[in-house]
Amino acid sequence: xxxxxxxxxxxxxxxxxxxxxxxxxxxxxxxxxxxxxxxxxxxxxxxxxxxxxxxxxxxxxxxxxxxxxxxxxxxxxxxxxxxxxxxxxxxxxxxxxxxxxxxxxxxxxxxxxxxxxxxxxxxxxxxxxxxxxxxxxxxxxxxxxxxxxxxxxxxxxxxxxxxxxxxxxxxxxxxxxxxxxxxxxxxxxxxxxxxxxxxxxxxxxxxxxxxxxxxxxxxxxxxxxxxxxxxxxxxxxxxxxxxxxxxxxxxxxxxxxxxxxxxxxxxxxxxxxxxxxxxxxxxxxxxxxxxxxxxxxxxxxxxxxxxxxxxxxxxxxxxxxxxxxxxxxxxxxxxxxxxxxxxxxxxxxxxxxxxxxxxxxxxxxxxxxxxxx
Amino acid sequence: xxxxxxxxxxxxxxxxxxxxxxxxxxxxxxxxxxxxxxxxxxxxxxxxxxxxxxxxxxxxxxxxxxxxxxxxxxxxxxxxxxxxxxxxxxxxxxxxxxxxxxxxxxxxxxxxxxxxxxxxxxxxxxxxxxxxxxxxxxxxxxxxxxxxxxxxxxxxxxxxxxxxxxxxxxxxxxxxxxxxxxxxxxxxxxxxxxxxxxxxxxxxxxxxxxxxxxxxxxxxxxxxxxxxxxxxxxxxxxxxxxxxxxxxxxxxxxxxxxxxxxxxxxxxxxxxxxxxxxxxxxxxxxxxxxxxxxxxxxxxxxxxxxxxxxxxxxxxxxxxxxxxxxxxxxxxxxxxxxxxxxxxxxxxxxxxxxxxxxxxxxxxxxxxxxxxx
Lengths: 373, 373
Description:
The structure is a homodimer. Chain A has helices at residues 7-14, 24-37, 42-57, 68-77, 106-124, 140-145, 202-210, 231-236, 251-269, 303-318, 334-346, 352-365; strands spanning 19-22, 88-92, 96-100, 126-134, 152-158, 179-183, 191-195, 220-221, 227-228, 238-239, 288-296, 348-351. Chain A is of the alpha+beta class. Chain A has two domains: 7-199 and 240-365, Ribosomal Protein S8, Chain: A, domain 1 (2-Layer Sandwich); 200-239, 2-Layer Sandwich (Wheat Germ Agglutinin (Isolectin 2), domain 1). In chain A, the strands form three sheets. In chain A, strands 2-3-4-11-5-6-7 form a seven-stranded mixed β-sheet, with helices on both faces. The first copy, chain A, has a three-stranded antiparallel β-sheet with strand order 9-8-10. Chain A is globular and about 50 Å long.
């Protein structure tokens, strides 16, 4: 649900000769080696590899190994991000838990917290958790999906560096603040809704700038707070919430969702929130918070019957009459699921610029570079 | 968050001489009398009055007493909706509950379920609930807000008559399927996000048709599945999800949220879902489901500190720099809160057409009509 419009688009993209193929195992191993080299514990480094490669397999390149150097390694090497944090429980009840991430990587503590939430939900039916003083944790969907094998519905969210303006505002006040929900089915792939609460991610503005294309209306405003379709002006301005400028197309709803995420993550965890969250200009580590939830399906009905009904539900949408010119109707998480299967079979594509970056990183850290499939 | 763009718009609307003023007590009492007259138990009738008048006070006229006759009374009188249902628990654990509404009014069973969820969350920290075989329950925000006095975060949702198409589709497959979240603050009004997952509600198309205005782009498609700004064509076609047509403005996100709601309400409760939900053409009572959740803030941190930080969070957004020409930045639920205070003080406005309808209903049922403030 992030950058992908359709399977056709996703697969067409991969035939542009801009991609080199690797494998899941090689990429995960590489991420682990790199992070261990800069001081991260092996078990934590493995989890980061899991999350990043899952993103690449799901077609969410922006959240995959492309970020290894800039988001994680460089910040550890410059001493801004703690490679050996003391992840610890700050508060706990039978159905809630709050972790303090001690300015460490977000992925390991995110998985720790979601697993604690799942264990609590296994015992008591439902549970919630949060993490404060953390950093970027990759794709929110990864954590929500951890609930699936337990016949639970999973939820995950995070606040993030501020790029977006509130409705009627012009200041960057909100991150892309994604929300994710994962719900199991039987034969159909699980329903996995994982979406930024801004209309588009900031990376999309950068792509349009590079391609010298105008933005669509409703994506961004300029520094003065006026709508703009100029990528340069937008990059100096702010992203708009899902629903776009003003309220005519429901921008207040996307703004409400973005603020909801900042509250559930930042205020609830006792972490940073609002203007305490970093911007592009004032980078600040350890100011990100996450939120998780899970509940057992059998608290409502027999999970087998539920999952069989999920198949019927998802198929009904996929089989419903299509708009003119459309080949296919999707449900959330379907494209990502199919890409994962395809990439596991045929190799995981890495953009050549990212590939070059990883090669440089390997040389820099004096670790072997053997990623080709 | 429903029809309201700003306080100025809301208050300007009321000075058009199209409104007659009543009071909260009189309106609630009238709803109770009407429903008792058609066979509803007094305690249940009182709850419906509470929910409907709360909507009118919050400025959500479309979900207030305007619907008393068409949505509830006429369906009871024609034998389609059960005035004396056997609301009963279909499944229950320490942190979950499912009610069967026996084709009764949605409001009393909705309140029953949310109160059970809150009681379970009080004991165990977090809880979820659902209701199946129900009917329209008014504004979702009402139920989410029941969590507020308990220092909990409340969630509520419902599926609804199908008006909306999925992304790339043209068939009505989804209701306006609202989602509501309520989070308490200290001095600031609570954050109450209550929004339809379609860009606009169907009622908005009807208003535009009546005023002979063109729709905004991204609100609706025609019967063939093409975007349209013609209210007539749109009313024969389908609403679009939040984010509009296709994926360019994030329509797949609104579609994902709408489907999420149908799953959480319909599939999870064991009720009707997908194409089992009624459309305008095939009305069907007892096919609506609701979903509720609540969790204790003190499972995360001290509620007083949380609420004090909520004040800071909400104020930061309200005080942030405004876009050109804007007088004010709002947070979710703020306009509704201020309108409630104003209407409790100055009288609850009822549109004259609604007023006339209520007067006719009173005559019809031979009950006194004394609603004027």
